[in-house]
Fold each of these.
Amino acid sequence: MDVVEHGKPRKAAVAAWVGSALEYYDFFIYGTAAALVFGKIFFPSSDPAAGTLLALATFGVGYVARPIGAFILGHVGDRFGRKKVLVFTVLLMGLSTFLVGCLPTYGQVGVLAPVLLVVLRLLQGLSAAGEQAGANSMSLEHAPEHRRSYYTSWTLSGTQAGQILATAVFLPVAAMPTAALQSWGWRLPFWASALVVVAAFVIRRKLEETPVFEREVAGKEQAKLPVAVLFRDHWADVLRVVFAAVIAAVSTIFTVYALSYAVNSAGLARTPMLWVGVLANVVALAAIPLWAMLADRVGRKPVFIGGSLGCAVLIFAYLGAISAGNYVLVFVVGILMFGVVYSATNAVWPAFYGEMFPARVRLSGMAIGTQIGFAIAGFTPTIAAAIAGDKSANWVGVAIFTAGLCLVNVIAVLTGRDNFRVPTADLGRKDSTGDRVPMTSPGGATA
């Protein structure tokens, strides 16, 4: 059993939280802008629905780059260290996001504008591919064995904070007159990323490498090609993570499609809908660590599955409330679904996925598995917009589609083993018979 130095778990968790908050601020301001503005300034069309569909597609493009980035950054993280990945990702995300704010519009340079937008979105996706897997690996490997879910959940709390920042920044921007919003107002949140990225870089530069990784370096146990080892010995777990990770569709439907549907189809005001996102994420900041602490006591699977099933039910209520134009129900159900119930899944998956793999391929396994699953989730707003078309009543089809993805997640999680009592040093290992090592309690007794 590893001896965890006092203070290091919290330091690693804080670094993961801050970096993820700033990283996902950058990532989600793009989603908000795609829902509210980009369809009009980068994809002008006589058909507004077509412009919105194309704008949402560019949001999904960032997820296409994620699997590619996962292979590259997963290799770097498992071969050369978690810290290098975390420093690189925050710099790449900050630069690409700032440049989005500098882009000319379609009216200024024609088709070159959406081309450049897609290129920068691809760079954002490459960065995000290594961010969560790197931060989760760092937090898990620094954490006390009986509190791994709690400490790894800080990464997801950071992403919620990033969404709060992204949405909050757009509140005053969205309230601007339409002409000002579409000409220069939308650029301000992107330019602001130049300030926040500096803070994340400084924090991560001071972070120490994990003892698990340092021990592998000292013992020369690193795999020269981690991906080859991963797919040779752990391919089933990679597939399991892929299908479990589609639960992220709840996030993309909530933050991108539902916002676009509410404003552009149901006729709801921009500002209240943005506030739903802000308040739901504020609630999530409190809910995530509580769910994570429960998962450290009862296991990852009960919490994860409960959250997924709850989202499958509540997505009908949320889209139905939007369709009815009932602001009270929109706020109540939106906060309940995204702030409370979806937080159960976010609290658990960083530990649940990370505990499937040994340290030598952990970052690669988490990055590749999650990013392929997230790539599927990234295109759900586009698929949902295609399902709905120009008929508001088609929200039922979108809800059925989202609920179906939640059930895919449940099946994937059910097939996995709950390793919450396995010592950190033994995670992902196999004994001489090829079976996983026996589960043990934090005190070392066989469970």
Note: Residues 60 and 379 are 5 Å apart (CA to CA).
Amino acid sequence: MDTEDTGEFLLPRSRAANERLHAVIPGGAHTYAKGDDQYPEDLAPVISHGRGAHVWDVDGNRYIEYGSGLRSVSLGHAHPRVIEAVRRELDRGGNFVRPSIVEAEAAERFLATVPTAEMVKFAKNGSDATTAAVRLARAATGRPRVAVCADHPFFSVDDWFIGTTPMSAGVPAATNELTVAFPYGDLAATEELLSRHRDEIACLILEPATHTGPPPGPRPRPSTPDPTPGYLAGLRELADRHGCVLIFDEMITGFRWSEAGAQGLYGVVPDLSTFGKALGNGFAVSALAGRRDLMERGGLRHPGDRVFLLSTTHGAETHSLAAAMAVQTTYVEEGVTARLHALGERLAAGVRDAAASMGVGDHVVVRGRASNLVFATLDENRRPSQRYRTLFLRRLLAGGVLAPSFVVSGALDDADIDRTVDVVAQACAVYRKALDAADPTPWMGGRPVKPVFRRLA
């Protein structure tokens, strides 16, 4: 077996840097999805810098990058309009003892972009926003339970959600019992859940449109990135009828589906919604938005009990809010959402053709909305396989493609897409050899990559 077959590719400086990271940071990263366990053994590049759609590791290798910043850097790294907006604010001070006028400007700009919301409050991360939405729903309804969509992987680092995952250590059982789950796309099952816990469920929280269907199997059913017609409207009706709050987690769909999120695209208005990721193009900003009567419960101009909604020292950092305003302006003026879809469509078609041409079209599967593509790696029996994922990622890295997903940024160009497809074709040729051998081990280079949520390290 030659070097090209095994995908020999060394990252000595990144390996040393990963050891430094693990010595001082639990898990070696500040997000579990960025951990080196998500990459082939000793092939987890540590990044030096990025520009546009490319990043460079500390070993000096350049990569075409997908899934930039876990979908947060949708315009590309160091985007000039965003950087200039941030730079203007840095010389004016970043945080004050009273609100800055930038806070009013940023809120007005957000509400003009997402007109289905009436008020907004900014924070620094998505978890704070979703937890604030849940707290607000509980306060408004007087109910204890939260219903989360079981088919969406993440909502918050807080106990009400993490307790439902395999990484539930440290979360009291009593807390776990207050969170129940419903399946995406199944209104009958959701209504049954609401009826079973009648007058107990404060809210339904879900990503409105990222689900791509059932897991692949011997006879996978077709999947779609869009909700079934009438599904979101049906949830709206169920929430109204059962007196609970409907919350859309738009961390991913916000700006990638449309500037106004999935709610703007599909025309169904939630009571509350949360945004982040693409909102700041890598700068730390998230948002909780929604109906005035609900949001005001966390304010000062109402007669009822006060709700401790969001109170964050850094939620009003002027440079992050300036970044958010620049992102929204850029999206609208430059048609970024349409560009993301066009790039994704080109990439998906190329990858599918490359996989089919190498005889692995049923094993390397691209799915999702064009602006939010993911891929599945299936074994000889067409079952999801971390071992085949390891082989595939290893070959992509060796070809200069850093792709935990195929989520595009607007900084990609046609040459980047074409180069990616070429590398995918090379990876698929090796994938075919592994399938023929019914064993990817010789091409894995070590232990398999691991799922983020698991009970043991």
Note: The chain is about 40% helix and 10% strand.
Amino acid sequence: MTAKSYGTVDVERQKQMSGLEFVKGLADGTLPLNTIAQTLGYDVVEAERGRVVVAIVPTGAHLNPAGTVHGGLTATLLDSCMGLAIQSALDKGTGQTTLEFKVSLLRPITPETGLITAEGKVLNCGRRIGAADGRVTDAKGRLLAHGTTTCLVFPT
């Protein structure tokens, strides 16, 4: 496994890869993760066509004023895994971007929760629109949050 780096992948380089090649490169470290992953501390840990998993161990740096992990972290994890799941289903020369997403927070997350994973799965991916859902779970498999997204699919 290659050590993870952070940044962006040049658009011309992205055009040469299928969506699955791109997302697998993020997971195996041959491509840099986006800088929000560095800022928040999450990692892309699994990638296959139509399915992507990101993971993080929440810390005190992620807390809201109430002392639990801010919902924005959970939303970011879901937006990332669901969008990348759609990306993994795209051909070369095709990109995607989030049009809308919905998140439902079911249980509080704290640093004591430990490792959490967000798994995104494609529901449908057409020529113009992709839809995915996502689940955030703890190490015991408890559902902490879930979400859905709709993404615009476009030629790059």
Note: The two ends are 29 Å apart (CA to CA).
Amino acid sequence: MSQFRARPPAVPTVLLDDAAVRITRWDFEPGADTGHHVHGLGYVVVPMTDCQFLLEEPGGSRRVDIAKGAAYRREAGVEHNVVNAGSEPMSFIEIEYKQS
């Protein structure tokens, strides 16, 4: 894997990590990305800003716009790279649940 990145990295800040949950705030400058990853846990996302996502997934890419405060959840196993496709900074809180 190359040591060079074409995009700036999104900035994760772990707010809480205990036996039940891991809560991370993700901050993205325009064009920033998370890097390709697979979610090992189910999770909930709560946008802190309006978010214009470019989701790069194994089957292709798609755009998704989510309004500030419009929470959603996904099961473990999601595989993607999340990119800020907008022209403004964006952020969201990701809550990974460790217990069912």
Note: The beta strands are 11-17, 21-28, 37-38, 42-47, 51-57, 60-66, 72-74, 79-84, 90-97.
